[in-house]
Fold:
Amino acid sequence: MSLQKSTCSLDISLLPEFGWSIKDQPVYGPGSVFQGIVKLKLLSRVPNIEKVKLSFRAYECIPPFEISPGVLRKARSNLFAVQRTLWSAKCDGAAKKFEANSEYTFPFTIQMALLQLPPSANHPAYQCKYQLVASLETSKENDAQSAINTSVQCSKDVLYMPYIETKLLKKPILLEARRGHLSVHAEISSFDYVPNDTIPITMSVSSFKMDRKSPFKYVTIQAKLVRVVQVIAFEGIKDHVETVKVNLHKMLLISCPAENHSNDIQNTPCHNNDQHLYCCKATISLHIPADVTPNVDYGRLAQIRYKLQLSVQQKGPMGGIWNYNTKLEDIPLNIGTLGYGIGVSPDLKFYSKYYPAPASSYQSNRNVPNSHMPTPMFMKAIEYEDALPLYEPHRLPTYSASQLTV
Structure:
């Protein structure tokens, strides 16, 4: 027997959370407990309903990529898979009758394992997905046996983030670069941030010109956040580099008294007595997206890191054909999930410790964690017989005997 979607439907809903969320979607981490319901809607009567099941599974993978013409490589690792029967005809068949044009709800509660798993990610070079899958099973009675057929399914993605610590520097970091007549100084207060943070950067730019009437007194400062995905499941694979966020700031160079910058002028390769100094100083900012994937240095298939790139460009003569560019050294950044000063328990282990094969020697038959690796657990929902009915703002509560709920 095969059911049509017009006959019945399944839907998974997670109950509201008051903790961390990204774009109105709740985020769960190690040890988190979340609740939800599976809603079954019947438009017509469905006979022989056997089970309503819910599974929670996760995997990480390297999508297929071409290493040479016609040769593809890929990798996949299942992190966990757990399942719970929310309703069974053998155990609860006598207590529930499914009628047409009715809705039925099946609550569930899941606790995440106290384990550092990889974060939810969807990048061209690496993906990690956590998913709830609800299914409705029906049966067709035969003389010899009962054949089970999964008729309807629905799924819902779950957003997971590990606990990544961040720390604040005692002293700001100073960077300097010089090329030709351009001199650039940058100051940054920290290497560690969390998603949705803003990175403040103090920039100082000096330009030495031979002619006071030079029209090229503007500079463009570029701040770029770059993500580097290093595939370690295979050897000899180039890092995948992608730009996360770019900000451009145009600044005006103002003539400065030369006596205040005598040391800078003396250190300029083209210095002479007729040289004039133009400078500017400002604090620019670069916003980190709220849905950015944090740093991962414990992954088995891939590792993720970030770096901040700063550069200054000044247009040259002939309509900007010859531009003057000065680039500072790349700044490594740690994008975590915990605020400054919030620590992680030393007992919190990484999932990669439970795999027998090292990351550099990926093998499909050894890419399964051992039996000691903690997995999420389904917990029994706590029910109270004398509890008041749920309040709904559009109508008064009903205090009469309510129907049996699962």
User: Anything to note?
Assistant: The first strand starts at residue 8 and ends at 14. Residues 142-146, 265-273, 402-406 have pLDDT under 50 and may be disordered.
